[in-house]
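Format notes (please read before filing issues)

Several people have asked whether sequences and structure tokens are stored in separate files. They are not. Every record keeps both together, in the order shown below: the sequence lines, then the token lines. Line labels are part of the format and must not be stripped during preprocessing.
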Amino acid sequence: MDRADIVHDNFLRRVPARDLPHGRAPSGALSAFQAVEIYRAACLSRALDRQSRVMQRAGQGFYTIGSSGHEGLGAVAAALRPTDMAFLHYRDAAFQIARSRQVPGQSIAWDMLLSFAASSEDPISGGRHKVLGSKALNIPPQTSTIASHLPKAVGAAYAIGAARRHRPEHAELPEDGIVYCSFGDASANHSTAQGAFNAAQWTSYQGIPLPLLFACEDNGIGISTKTPKGWIAASFQNRPGLKYFACDGLDIFDTFATAQEAAHYVRTRRKPAFLHIRTIRLYGHAGADMPTTYLPREEVEAEEAQDPLLHMVRGLDQIGAMAPDAALQVYTETNARVARIAAEAVTRPRLRDAKGVMASLIPPKRACKPTNGPSPEARSQVFGSDLKQMAEPQIMSRLINWALTDLMLSHREIVMMGEDVGRKGGVYGVTQKLQARFGADRMIDTLLDEQSILGLAIGMAQNGFIPMPEIQFLAYLHNAEDQLRGEAATLPFFSNGQYTNPMVLRIAGLGYQKGFGGHFHNDNSVAVLRDIPGLILACPSNGADAARMLRECVRLAREEQRLVVFLEPIALYPMRDLHGDKDGGWMQTYPDPSEVIPFGQVGCHGAGEDLAIVTFGNGVYLSRQAEPALAEAGIKARIIDTRWLSPLPKVALTEAVQGAKRILIVDETRHTGGMAEALMAHFHEACPGIPLARVTAEDSFIATGPAYAATMPSRDSILAAAQEICA
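Then the structure lines:
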């Protein structure tokens, strides 16, 4: 017999017989009414778990990981406010159901069954996944089973305090709110979770407000691997900056009282806390998982004997809130009601085509207060002597700095964060003076942890900020790429556009640094970024373009709620000369703050018809260096700067090569998986018959020392390839 049926039959048999598990006598502030409400939520959660299995067997449902054994989390919901943002563990159906009973107008059983049926009418995901979540209940949907949502919970909690100082236009979280974040005991060991705990402690230790309540639902096992007894308590009881609370999740009275105490601590002290909740896991991990294949039967049966619903029935009886027979009636009526609702839910429409599935990849636009930019007086006060230098040509790093200054003057909701961005002004000086200009709360020097940096940004976006995190080097992004892929990019997708993660992530990257750093500081692969649906990847080739594009990137984040990565070519930061020593050919003057390069607009230098060189970043610089030799060889060329690497500006690129007899792609990323592959495919499809060639980097990491550029395109290799295709 299926373990779910065994647990169900046990309940039906034991309640009438008054065969209830022993436990501590009820005590504390939980009222009879609240206790009954929590029990009703638990019954609904249990019924939904059972129904999901019925639906799966009938081919009407597709995901059966459930919450049975964790129903006591309804008591935690009762201890919080429905305005407290909750990032939930995937076994927290009872929490969501209990919260729904605090907010008028909810139809939680119907909503969750639509999710089970993958109906396009599912109010949270639109049929894209069985996720817990609700905009009305302040519960962003989660798909993570490995605690990747913890870093953004830290960011959201930080954003509450930050909003007290700089209230964003689109702020949603109340000033006295807290952030709740739950996860399993196995997930607590994940490096992402450990990084989030450390970031929270690091922040709290410095006295920075962080109203965050972590909740570890400890059922003692992760799929089949047991958590060592006592591990969670031993690991979290004495952490600096993190207050520890513990309760028995089988006892809703104890759980409510402890959760209430923990929430009060977090809300009043503005410090993080760790709530350790003992739970049990019923039915195994999910679906077809059979716990008796890896656990002794007697151990499984012992857990089943401690069914939290049986404990609730005992407690309700002891306080005189509900007799066992009445409790049994609630249970059976709830199961029957869920079955009736499910019969209707499975008839509702589902997603049928790619267009429908992809409809929420791109977030909806939002109305923003118009801005005319900073006033001359404000600019004069902030820029100081820098204003006088704006009429003179400058290097890229300085023009980016000035663009960031103007943007932060224009939009108070912009916050930058990263390693060394504040006091030091960045490894390459790009953010110099910004902390002095705007304060440490808008130029945040973070701890050395890329996951925490991106989590902070993602979480702050939940409260209306426009985060501009910085990753020092492209190679370091790989430490935290899942925060972009698994969290930021998926949020609008799995919330049907109701939740978004607008931000502009700045990354110093690509190669050509002379003799410095090797692969760690020169990474010429962007494949991991181009592979993320919905993400915009921008890469300027010169300082004036960088300023204009950065303004557009901020507009895309602010008004269109887009996730944007702004890739800054490290080697071009200080570049002054183009053809000869001290010619100043690669410096530009600072463009007026009103000037932007629209998303999808490419750059074009020259109008030659013999050859169109399509490139980006350092490739533009190298191609410009090759121009005189090309002309000398009789090749009339034009150089097209792609600028926007993902999604490719296909229409603009096709128009830009019109009239050219040949196309040469210069790609400083790798031969395999690089930009050239996408560009070759596009031009092959869009411009049939036009000869194509490419110059790419080798499939290699980058060396330190004299061979720093040996594996990448050069002026000479571009010239040679141009001569070959034009021969």
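For reference, the curators noted about this record: The CA atoms of residues 401 and 430 lie 5 Å apart. The radius of gyration is 29 Å.
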